[in-house]
Protein 1
Amino acid sequence: MYRVRSLPGFRLLCIFLALIMAFSASAAGLQPLLTGMSKYSQDVLQSLRPAPPAYTDEPTPIFYGDNPLRDEEHRGGLYTDAQLAAIQVQLIENALAHGTINAGTLGMLLVGGGGSGGAPMAWERNLGSVNSQTGNKMTTLPIVSWPIRGGGTLEFQLYHNSKSTRVTPAGYAWTMAYDWSVQQTFDEESGTLTGANIYKQDGTIIPFTYNATTQKYVPPAGIPETLVKNANNTWTYTKKDQTKWNCRDERQLHVLGRQSW
């Protein structure tokens, strides 16, 4: 019989190939086994845990989401505590002036929330018609709209804000297209002028802080609008699009005209 001479390199190659085939076969067999063992262990652990009850008389803690520091009342720094207190006082006085205050509306006015109405700010988001920051649902009902000379339109809408406590001739939490007003705020103890609040037609309330040094009204951060009290005691409110609203003096201020440059 003829014997083939075995070379050391050839023998090592054969051993290496045999090991590769053995590893592949064992891996193919071990993978389903490991998967089955993992699933079995999970089922065992799940069976050892107590099943949650169908209902409970003790509710679990509220889940505030991934950002529990969200503050719907101050709206990301739009309002301070003092400004919210001033808004609350003005809303109660406004309800008394309209003769629409009762036990129910007074309770909601005392609870607060007057600053939660209106369209979302630039840093807030809407889910449909609901502000995800404040939880307010704003409903807009268009009534009429006419084009006017010089561009733009003359429109009349009704607005309802679910979290507003503002009272107007349209009703509780309802506002109309020309429900604009400016109301100054004062310190309760010293009587010093502290600012002024813009009450917009859609239910938004913008607080301006009075700077006694410059004698100017300063808007909150992120609000590109200006408010000026003129020498004849009228007000000029300029919006971001440079639309100007001119108002008479004192608390229930009526819009005299609108000019756009």
Note: The helical segments are 8-48, 81-98, 103-111.
Protein 2
Amino acid sequence: ISACHAEGRGFESRPHRQMEKVASREVTFFGICNIQDKMFYAYIIQSQKDLSFYIGHTSDMQKRLDYHNSGLSCYTSKKKPWKLVYFETYETKQEANAREYFLKRQKNKSFYERLIKGTTNELIKGDQ
């Protein structure tokens, strides 16, 4: 028997919903297992064409960067190729969205440059 089905036989009427928080995983037992192990990111990418910045949030960084570089986005298609220069990791979409909103309100290129220069993210520094 898998861990997902250990609590019951799966045909009980109206089983009580049990939730437990383990690290950043939400495990819900409600007949089936629902494991949420997703991280969210607020990010800054930079156009290699004109060095402008674009700020966004996503749950799949590589897929989102590929999307921006594919030309499918109206705004970013005109300035491709794009390079990831900064990102922050969050446990919830709301946190990443709030940080994106904060970063977009700055509208200050020197603020973004200081933020990027001060990053300790080795994944990004390795690409430069």
Note: The longest strand covers residues 82-90.
Protein 3
Amino acid sequence: VELTRATIVLAGAELAGAGPIEGTWVGPHSKLIFNKDGTGRADVVSLKCSTDTTWSTNGNALTFTETKSTCKGMESFLNIPHNGYYSMSADGNKLVMVMQKVPPFHATGSTAISVMAKEGTTLPAAPPPPTGFTATKSGPGQVSTSWAVVSGADAYNAFCMTDPMTGKNTVVMGVLSGTSATLTGLTAGQKYNCFVSALNAGGMQQSSIVAVRP
């Protein structure tokens, strides 16, 4: 993975340009609000969670910190920073974020992609589920995955986790283009359940699950 201030380069794909991120963005399961004063909010509709945030940018580098969360009436105070990069379409209506995921559920260094649309724009139809997914051991603690091209997908996230119901011990690698990813940092000999999701601003669909022991 190579991330630079001017461009995003990930798994062979490049997204250039970083327009102003301020505004409200909607995705498959969430809404992000970036206020001009550096505050914001993240709403996850499916979990009925609303999280206060702070954010800052440097070029197209993005730091996004969760500060206080309310989920189904229960409040918790957080200080969880997410670091990554973002890019925007030429018309300013599509936002792509490449963010480092954090423990406890995600392994350190896991990188996932989100695709969001400017609020008020027409969302595309969600892509169909990926087909032809394979996951094989390619070294100690390492799994190589591949899948077929999905029409309408802007990006893919390849996952391996020990428990697909809870997402425990997840390692994820985002792919902006191409149909393969190598996931590292897994526990050797541990059984993992792996799959890939295809996504755009309108939704995401996942492949069938393949079990593997790296």
Note: The CA atoms of residues 18 and 87 lie 5 Å apart.
Protein 4
Amino acid sequence: MTLRDRWRRPRRPWHRGTSGQAKILVVEADESDGTFVELDSAGIIVTNVEADHLEYYGSFDKLEETFVRFVRNAAGPKVICIDDPGAAKLSAACASDDLITYGTRPGATWRIIEPLPTPVGISFSGLRTATIR
């Protein structure tokens, strides 16, 4: 078996990747070294902002400033989870017509209601609580 064959046959299901014909690419951006702000983002989703990688940023304030730049640089929709305190603060700092928030908290553009754990995940209903422009 060649190295190329091993790459094509991942041992773990979460290590899969293929090259297809689509014109979009979904990336989990890593903020560890600040380069995520250089991505040419058509749209972004931020799930949380935590005090991580402070050895690079030097302070949580610098990390937050970098996330603000990342959100403001996105050309398309900006989606932020307001259940996380850091991300909620980010959404307030980046308020705009194309900002969409989600979560269980009141005030989310899309509010998760009636979450119900199931054997394969979580089932829930969604309630749009604000107009999306």
Note: Residues 60-73 form the longest helix (14 residues).
